[in-house]
Amino acid sequence: MAEGANSTPAYASAGVDIAAGDRAVALMKEHVGRARRPEQVADPSGFAGLFRLDASRYRSPLLATSTDGVGTKVMIAQRCDRHDTVGLDLVGMVVDDLVVCGAEPLFMTDYIACGRVVPERVAELVKGIAEGCRQAGCALSGGETAEHPDAMRPDEYDLAGAGTGIVEEDAVLGPQRVREGDAVIAMASSGLHSNGYSLVRRVVDEAALRLDARVPELGTELGEELLKPTRIYAQDCLALAGAVEVHAFAHITGGGLAANLARSLPEGLDAVVDRATWSPPAVFPFVAERGAVGPADMEATFNMGVGMAALVPSASAQRALALLEERGVPAWHAGSVVAGSGKARLEGAYA
């Protein structure tokens, strides 16, 4: 985590407190230390993260890369003054994109921009990122914290990250493997994950909802529900692909289930998903009702309870479900692949 050298009076008077940055680095070290892999190599200068790749373990390795952020969910975290969960969202958005092609996440770097460095807050952010990396099985190999006075208000911040993974060239998953008759296995989301928060915030503000108010239908405070961290599927997907023939994954993010599932389909095949196979968690009808958001807009914005989908041969569906259950991932047979034109469609009504 890079910060500058000694602070100067002139720089401090301009709003940049390098001493605070140095303290933030010291506070985050304990968390970063929990997100390591044996392939990491120390860079004496501290300017880069080094990772030893044992090429002898692979036949024809491809490196995969992905980058993402958390979006305006960070604004909910700032309003609630809780900063230890959005880091998990950041990792989930990155590593679960990597695993769609079958890549094992190896390492991540993060970038935190803030109006003012508050060491304890930065450490909380990194704590979440490190925990996300631990869950994903990847290393947190470095990052940057930048103080942007005037460009951001003192209590504002934003997160971004990039990850690198590896996959054998002949093991790349995707539309090229999908076949007619494949089963669509849906994996439950933990809630909203990290998409649609511009709409969520509009609903909260226009309905004058309090984030610290307990909502009976949610069983918790509204802010607590909105800050539920994204479920991280990377290790579960890798375990599934190692035990069962998997043709493709689809990470259900912005655009919803139909749009993201279609990205994993070849021309000439459709995925038909039966809404009756699950009931969206309470937060989705809550947003729809309080914001008067129609069904089409809900499904085009939110995951509606499905955070990841796998396309597997129908003969492997039960084994896939059993493995996911063993790993504590709620999952169900949600549909199938049929002849079509490369689209995914949801049919019927939710349970």
From TrEMBL:
The keyword Ligase applies. Keywords: ATP-binding, Cytoplasm, Ligase, Nucleotide-binding, Purine biosynthesis. Pathway: Purine metabolism; IMP biosynthesis via de novo pathway; 5-amino-1-(5-phospho-D-ribosyl)imidazole from N(2)-formyl-N(1)-(5-phospho-D-ribosyl)glycinamide: step 2/2. Its main location: cytoplasm. Pfam families: AIRS (PF00586), AIRS_C (PF02769). Coiled coil: none annotated. InterPro entries: PurM-like_C_dom, PurM-like_C_sf, PurM-like_N, PurM-like_N_sf, PurM_cligase. It catalyses: 2-formamido-N(1)-(5-O-phospho-beta-D-ribosyl)acetamidine + ATP = 5-amino-1-(5-phospho-beta-D-ribosyl)imidazole + ADP + phosphate + H(+). One of its GO terms (molecular function) is phosphoribosylformylglycinamidine cyclo-ligase activity. The keyword Ligase applies. Residues 179-342 form the PurM-like C-terminal domain. Residues 63-167 form the PurM-like N-terminal domain. HAMAP family: AIRS (MF_00741). NCBIfam families: purM (TIGR00878). Belongs to the AIR synthase family. This is Phosphoribosylformylglycinamidine cyclo-ligase. It comes from Streptomonospora arabica. The gene is purM.
